[in-house]
Amino acid sequence: MMSRSLVKHFDRFSITPNPLKKNGNDNSGLYFLYSLMNHNCISNTKSIIHCVKDDSSSAQIDVRALRPIKAGEEISTRYVSSNMGLPTRRELLLEHWGFTCNCSRCKDPSELGTYTSAVKCSSCQSGYFLPSLDLLKEWSCNSCSKGLSKIRLQMIINENTEKIRTATRSQGPKIDVLKELIVDLKDSLHENHFLILQVEYILVVLMSNSIPSLSSSIKNKNITINNIDPSIWKEYTALCEHIYYVMNKLDPGKN
Fold this sequence. Notes:
The chain is an alpha+beta fold. The chain has seven helices and ten strands. A hairpin with a 5-residue loop joins strand 9 and strand 10. Helix 3 (150-169) runs antiparallel to helix 4 (175-185) and helix 5 (194-210) packs antiparallel against helix 7 (230-250). The protein is globular, with a radius of gyration of 21 Å.
């Protein structure tokens, strides 16, 4: 039997969606070869968990390339979600895996020009507070150089997170409520902020399900817009294009 101290040094892979889920219980897998792969926030592979044949008591993990991998290039995976801000990713990686990520995304305060962590500057109204590469230092506005303390930053994130929870908690999220929420969030966050992207994704799903002809077309992988209101279709595609634009920079090859 493997000791607890040894298990801590291997990557534990949560199975979601879980093909082994029984009686409502989640499972995790320990994959020795997979655990040797290093993390990169812009990894060049994706991992797929599936049952081995018809054996519901076990599962295997497949690692597949997201894009062409050059000879000599390290094959990497991702330990945390790509739809997280820089501070959250770095803190999780440091806390659970014991290292500070220095990938191209983490070394760039703008996160490859996406600004998915950027908070609007209330002083100059034209700039954004960008993450400091030092987790303990305050953020600086890219326009007026005003500083933002970590405490104040966390307050802004917590306030907006609570708004999202409130909008999605009571009897399920509603399309009009989420549209208003996105406008509200943009008052303090960059339009590409990861919290706004999360709301936009929920909104896309709701809109897909609320339009019978669109929902049916997506399920059949044959999208037609003959019976869809042009204004709704324009709004729907704009949301999809925005999400794709940002995520294709942060997670190229997966979308």
